[in-house]
Amino acid sequence: MTILEIIQILIFFSLLIGLTPILGKYMANVFTGNRHFMLPVFGWLERLAYRFIKVDPNEETNWKSYAFGLLMFNLTGFLFVFLIQLFQAVLPLNPAHLSNVSWHSAFNTAVSFMTNTNWQGYAGETTLSYFVQMVGLTVQNFVSAATGIAVLLALIKGISRKTTDKLGNFWVDLTRSTLYVLLPLSIVLAVLLVGQGVVQNFNSYETIQTLQGAEQVIPSGPAASQIAIKQMGTNGGGFFNANSAHPFENPTPFSNLLEMLAILLIPASLTFTYGKMVGSTRQGWTIFTAMIILLISGLAISLYAEYASNPVFGHLSLMEGKETRFGITNSLIWSTSTTAASNGSVNAMHDSLSPLSGMIAMINIMLGEVVFGGVGAGLYGMVIFVILTVFIAGLMVGRTPEYMGKKIEAFEVKMAIIAVLAPSFVILIFSAWASVSQMGLSSLNNSGPHGFSEILYAFSSAAGNNGSAFAGLNANTVFYNLTLGIGMLIGRFGVIIPVLAIAGSMGRKKITPLSAGTFRTDNWLFIGLLIGVILIVGGLTFFPALSLGPIVEQLLLNNGITF
Amino acid sequence: MSTKQNISLFDKALLLQATKDSVIKLNPVALIKNPVIFIVGLGAVLTTVIVITGGLQGNFSSFNLQIAIWLWFTVLFANFSEAIAEGRGKAQAESLKKNRTQTKARKLVGKQEVSVFAPELKKGDIVICEAGDVIPSDGEVIEGIASVDESAITGESAPVIRESGGDRSAVTGGTKVISDRILISITSEPGNTFIDRMIALVEGAKRQKTPNEIALSILLSGLSIIFLLAVVTLPAFFGYSLSASGLPGSENLTLPVLVALLVCLIPTTIGGLLSAIGISGMDRLLQRNVIATSGRAIEAAGDVDVLLLDKTGTITLGNRMATNFIPADGVTVEELADAAQLSSLSDETPEGRSIVVLAKEKFNIRGRDITNLHATFIPFTAQSRMSGVDLSSKDGKTHQIRKGSSEAIRTFIHNNNGFFPQKIKDIVTELARQGATPLVVAEDDKVLGVVHLKDIVKGGIKQRFSELRKMGIKTVMITGDNPLTAAAIAAEAGVDDFMAEAKPEDKLQRIREEQANGHLVGMIGDGTNDAPALAQADIGIAMNSGTQAAREAGNMVDLDSNPTKLIEVVEVGKQLLMTRGALTTFSIANDVAKYFAIIPAIAVSLYAGSNGVGPLSALNIMHLGSPQSAILSAIIFNALIIVMLIPLALKGVRYRPVSANVALTRNLFIYGLGGIIAPFIGIKLIDLLINL
Amino acid sequence: MKTLIISLKIFLFFTILTGIVYPLVVTGIVQVVFPHKANGNLIVEAGKTVGSELIGQQFDSTIYFMGRPSVTLYNPLPSGGSNYGLTNAKLKNLVEERKQQFIRFNQLDSLTEVPSEMLFASASGLDPHISPKAALLQVERVANARGFNADQKQQLQKLVLEFTEEPQFLCLGEKRVNIFLLNLEIDNIQ
Question: What is the pTM of this model?
Answer without folding.
Answer: 0.90
